Amino acid sequence: xxxxxxxxxxxxxxxxxxxxxxxxxxxxxxxxxxxxxxxxxxxxxxxxxxxxxxxxxxxxxxxxxxxxxxxxxxxxxxxxxxxxxxxxxxxxxxxxxxxxxxxxxxxxxxxxxxxxxxxxxxxxxxxxxxxxxxxxxxxxxxxxxxxxxxxxxxxxxxxxxxxxxxxxxxxxxxxxxxxxxxxxxxxxxxxxxxxxxxxxxxxxxxxxxxxxxxxxxxxxxxxxxxxxxxxxxxxxxxxxxxxxxxxxxxxxxxxxxxxxxxxxxxxxxxxxxxxxxxxxxxxxxxxxx
Length: 289
Hints:
By secondary structure, the protein is α+β, with helices and mostly antiparallel strands.
């Protein structure tokens, strides 16, 4: 069984055609149906074609796919070839050997591990490039996929919404990852360390009160005198204290001094929810087999 490289994939087969008594059929053209099933018996018919083959001394030679195109996608599983003549399936089905399974990758472009960015929707991309490509969306992959065998991955990276960065094994240009990071590793959002200068004008509107140390001490003494005078009746003391807070400004305005404080910086109505350079978005695909 040989694989022929032509515009459409063809599989060359040779066989014999005999009568029920075991004798070779006469030379000449015979109408035969070839069919591919997913089981050695019964099962699902995945492809078939009916054509005339030339019999010479009971032997025939035929290219599967010459009458009905073969779909490379069906060769991702074990298949069995049935030969049908006059409505009867002849002998046992023949297991397809390794060569036909090359068909599965004939329709695939690129090499395992390649990454492509495209404007095509997934269905359109696969139709153009083959079903050995998948969207990089963090999905799991099978242990039989070649990429899983090479990298030991159980899941592919999720590239949705993230920028692709050139790999730097030294870490010099990618210091947060450091040297020899895993290829395909993800980094979250981050701001580089930096400072913002704030001018003196930012402090001009802070309420202040020029109260000397002596003033504060004098006001504290007044509070003590009040407390002594009403030590037997604290409720009256508190009421009096509330009425006389204007006479004790250190109690009401001490918090207006420009002690430790923070500034909020408003980036304005044009700012968004992330920091990013100018960009355009594409689908990102990776070949896994």
